[in-house]
Write a structure and sequence with these properties.
379 residues, mainly beta, 11-stranded mixed beta sheet, 6-stranded antiparallel barrel, 9% helix, 32% strand, globular
Length: 379
């Protein structure tokens, strides 16, 4: 069997950092400065009051205004009232990699311009109730840097959020990636699997979320595809299957593009091909995107627990720094002569598995199965 083609190296990425857009964006797809929220009212249509206040002197070109929106007859709610239905995928379904898509009017930026964040010393988590693995941990050196780019593929990554209980303002948050026209890939343990009632918890996805801004709006999950309901990825099997794909109520990928996938090969062990975009709690309080490059995986194995073998992969790394809020974030790379990026795994856990004390990512053919099935059912 021939060896798989390798991703682009960091030197190649630097040499081809930007591929400019090849066409103008259609007029009806101009990005507004927008932030979405939901209200419940006693009428069919809410009343809306808008005020605009100039802020006066400031640095930078142009004028700055404060825009306030009030809904006098409305009560704010966190999520649109949509049902999130559950789908189990056949473990023997086709598992080939899937392609991504970059709209021709978006620049392809392989390495973003970044600025150093204000860092605080990371704190290593202690085992909980004797369990050796918990999401997630930061290793040094910490290569995470803050960035601000709406180019591809960064516009395909966003915040995933779900209330911890009905009526609660407390959110369970993670990171997700557009992996199809209306499909988002994230970690299974980001989902609230204990939501009461026949449907799953409401889940939102906000691409390019940054300090409360939603430049491309917010999508809500209507269907979720899964193999394993993971609450805490604490063994080889749960880490190897720690991913879900949910279907959105709108086709954000048509405007923003989406990533593809590639099954990881051990030919790439210890090679710093991989990049990651996430919303870590320790650096940005789950609200600011951070980028890191030159990530390598030491190994990728199938679960070996007796009676639990499978073709999922649990992948260990000591070069990726991740924290709570980064759960579900993509590890991805670019391949030569392709205009889109491919995901090989998502951030899952930290701790000791198979005698290795590392950070862990979830990947393998089952991840492809979820994506292919969700795309087929909801193209």
């Amino acid at each position: 069997m021939s060896k798989p083609a390798s991703p682009m190296s960091i030197e190649e990425l630097r040499a081809e950092r930007i591929t400019p857009a090849s066409s103008d964006k259609p007029p009806d797809l101009v990005n507004p400065c927008q932030s979405s929220f939901y209200v419940r009212t006693g009428t069919d249509k809410p009343e809306v009051e808008v005020s605009v206040t100039p802020l006066g002197e400031h640095s930078g070109p142009g004028e700055v205004h404060q825009v306030e929106v009030r809904v006098p007859n409305g009560r704010r709610q966190s999520f649109a009232p949509v049902e999130n239905r559950l789908h189990i995928v056949d473990r023997n379904a086709p598992a080939h990699a899937v392609d991504g898509h970059r709209p021709p009017y978006l620049d392809l930026v392989r390495l973003p311009e970044v600025r150093e964040p204000l860092r605080r010393r990371p704190t290593r988590l202690r085992p909980i109730k004797g369990r050796p693995v918990a999401p997630l941990n930061v290793f040094q050196p910490d290569r995470r840097v803050e960035f601000d780019s709406l180019a591809y593929p960064f516009c395909t990554v966003g915040q995933v959020a779900s209330p911890v209980a009905p009526g609660s303002s407390q959110m369970k948050v993670g990171t997700g990636t557009l992996i199809g026209p209306r499909h988002v890939l994230t970690a299974s343990h980001v989902m609230n699997w204990h939501w009461p009632g026949p449907n799953l918890s409401p889940v939102s996805f906000t691409p390019s979320f940054n300090r409360g801004l939603a430049p491309f709006g917010i999508g809500n999950a209507t269907h979720t595809y899964w193999f394993r309901q993971v609450d805490n990825p604490d063994d080889e099997l749960s880490v190897s299957l720690d991913y879900i794909v949910f279907v959105l109520d709108q086709r954000l990928g048509d405007q923003l593009g989406y990533m593809g996938t590639q099954t990881y090969s051990n030919d790439w062990d210890d090679k710093p091909y991989w990049m990651n975009v996430s919303y870590p709690h320790d650096l940005g309080n789950d609200e600011v995107p951070f980028f890191q490059d030159q990530v390598s995986f030491e190994d990728a194995d199938n679960p070996g627990i007796v009676g639990q073998e499978g073709d999922g992969l649990y992948m260990d790394t000591e070069s990726a720094s991740v924290d709570h809020g980064a759960s579900g974030s993509p590890f991805y790379a670019f391949w030569p002569n392709e205009t889109f990026s491919r995901v090989v795994s998502v951030a899952s856990a930290e701790g000791t598995l198979n005698f290795d004390d590392d950070n862990w990512a979830a990947g393998g053919p089952p991840m492809n199965r979820l994506i292919r099935q969700a795309r087929t059912d909801f193209p």
